[in-house]
């Protein structure tokens, strides 16, 4: 795919180590590059101990960015980039994961960091060791796609009619009229190590009436590769009965999901204000490798209730043979509540709807299916080294509405 580079500009603030302010950098046709001089250094900008350097980045095009740090490190140096350091919620938005420069000057690269239009107050952290920074470069690799079709489902009635689905009856790559790809290895807000690829049959393909999302270890220079498909840019939904019929992988470290994320998401500060509905969510360390018995989690994340402040509202249900039998994971999304079902059995309601902080779900959501390996939850008990690959298999994804009575 042709890499798209867009003109950006930058205003550097005084850095934390007596740096001087720099002038605004004029827009150009090249990727934005922040040099050591702009960070307040001379030929190199030095960081030691727990130090950091602050700057502001002005983004003119929303999307997913490649971040390239040219540096050399010592004592197992590790750095990471924080966005929106002045956010009102006191959150920490790590948009690169750990970058580990070697003893020689070289480039550490992360793909897919989400950045929205506007000014981003940023901080480059040194987590350990020491490092000499030469430059940081940002390149747009996937522009944000505006969703073309917003479907609004009627929920008043007892009978259901299908309004959207993917039965995965094709062959090869998934249907691009319904799905796009989230790409990269920036950590996805959960310190996940996998690289999500695009248009790679090895990681996402239709086969024998199924969608197979397959994660591979030590693939293309990455610890793990996998795929994350989203309807963003294609379809978004408000209300409806949403079903994922799937088999999920066993194996410590796996983290399979079928879920919805607010169509308003642009970058990390959008969440959890935009809302998240987890319908199918499983982690491998809760699944018995022999029997496949495990747990599914259904959760709603909002600004009022979400896992990073420890008060998320959700429930779990035992599932047999998760890795060898298809089960139907379902949410019924009404204007005032969510109801979760497994194979038609009800087990959870979310009905906090007093205001937008509790109930952002009057706005449209995109459907996402993905398989992570590791991360804050999936990797909480490590990643089993005996597995070289994992398969997450979906039979279909369907959206229904209540049939309108004539």
Give a verbal description of the structure.
- This protein is mainly β and 406 residues long.
- It has two domains: 9-143, Sandwich (Jelly Rolls); 149-402, Jelly Rolls (Sandwich).
- 0% of the residues lie in helices and 49% in strands.
- It is built from no helices and 27 strands.
- The protein has strands at residues 9-11, 32-35, 45-48, 52-59, 63-83, 93-94, 106-115, 118-143, 149-152, 160-166, 180-181, 195-196, 204-207, 210-219, 222-226, 228-230, 235-238, 240-247, 254-262, 276-283, 294-301, 313-319, 327-333, 338-342, 345-350, 365-373, 389-402.
- The strands form four sheets. Strands 10, 12, 13, 14, 15, 18, 23, 24, 25 and 27 form a ten-stranded mixed sheet that branches. Strands 1, 2, 3, 4, 5, 6, 7 and 8 form an eight-stranded antiparallel sheet that branches. Strands 11-16-26-19-20-21-22 form a seven-stranded antiparallel sheet, with no helix packed on it.
- A hairpin with a 2-residue loop joins strand 13 (204-207) and strand 14.
- It is globular, with a radius of gyration of 22 Å.
Task: Give short descriptive properties of this protein.
406 residues, mainly beta, Jelly Rolls, 2 domains
Q: Indicate the overall shape.
A: globular
Question: What's the order of the H and E elements?
Answer: EEEEEEEEEEEEEEEEEEEEEEEEEEE
Question: What is the CATH topology classification name of the largest domain?
Answer: Jelly Rolls
Number of helical stretches of at least 4 residues: 0
Distance between the termini: 49 Å
Query: What's the number of domains?
Result: 2
Sheet bearing the most strands, described?
10 strands, mixed
């Amino acid at each position: 795919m042709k890499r798209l580079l867009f003109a950006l500009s930058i205003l550097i603030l005084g850095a934390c180590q007596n740096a001087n302010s720099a002038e605004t950098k004029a827009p150009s046709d090249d990727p934005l590059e922040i040099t050591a001089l702009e960070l307040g250094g001379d030929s190199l900008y030095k960081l030691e101990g727990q130090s950091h350097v602050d700057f502001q980045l002005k983004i003119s095009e929303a999307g997913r960015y490649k971040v390239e740090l040219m540096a050399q490190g010592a004592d197992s140096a590790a750095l990471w980039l924080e966005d929106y350091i002045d956010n009102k919620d006191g959150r920490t938005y790590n948009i690169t994961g750990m970058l580990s420069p070697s003893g020689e000057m070289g480039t550490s690269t992360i793909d897919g960091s989400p950045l929205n239009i506007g000014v981003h107050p940023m901080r480059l952290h040194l987590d350990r060791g020491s490092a000499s920074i030469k430059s940081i470069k940002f390149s747009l690799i996937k522009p944000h796609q505006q969703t073309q079709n917003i479907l609004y489902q009627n929920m008043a009635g007892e009978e259901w009619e299908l309004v959207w689905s993917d039965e995965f009856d094709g062959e090869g790559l998934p249907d691009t009229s319904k799905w796009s790809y989230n790409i990269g290895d920036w950590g996805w807000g959960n310190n996940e190590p996998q690289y999500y690829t695009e248009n790679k049959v090895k990681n996402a393909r239709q086969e024998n009436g199924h969608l197979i999302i397959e994660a591979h270890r030590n693939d293309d220079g990455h610890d793990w590769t996998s795929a994350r498909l989203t309807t963003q840019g294609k379809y978004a939904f408000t209300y409806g009965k949403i079903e994922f019929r799937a088999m999920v992988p066993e194996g410590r470290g796996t983290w399979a999901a079928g879920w919805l994320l607010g169509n308003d998401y642009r970058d990390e500060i959008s969440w959890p204000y935009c809302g998240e509905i987890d319908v199918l969510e499983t982690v491998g360390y809760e699944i018995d490798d022999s029997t496949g018995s495990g747990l599914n989690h259904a959760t709603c994340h909002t600004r009022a209730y979400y896992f990073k402040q420890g008060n998320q509202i959700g429930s779990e249900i035992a599932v047999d043979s998760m890795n060898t039998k298809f089960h139907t994971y379902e949410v019924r999304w009404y204007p005032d509540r969510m109801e979760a079902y497994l194979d038609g059995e009800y087990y959870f309601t979310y009905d906090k709807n007093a205001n937008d902080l509790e109930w952002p779900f009057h706005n449209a959501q995109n459907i996402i299916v993905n398989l992570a390996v590791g991360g804050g939850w999936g990797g909480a008990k490590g990643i089993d080294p005996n597995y070289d690959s994992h398969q997450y298999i979906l039979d279909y994804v369907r959206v229904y509405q209540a049939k309108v009575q004539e």
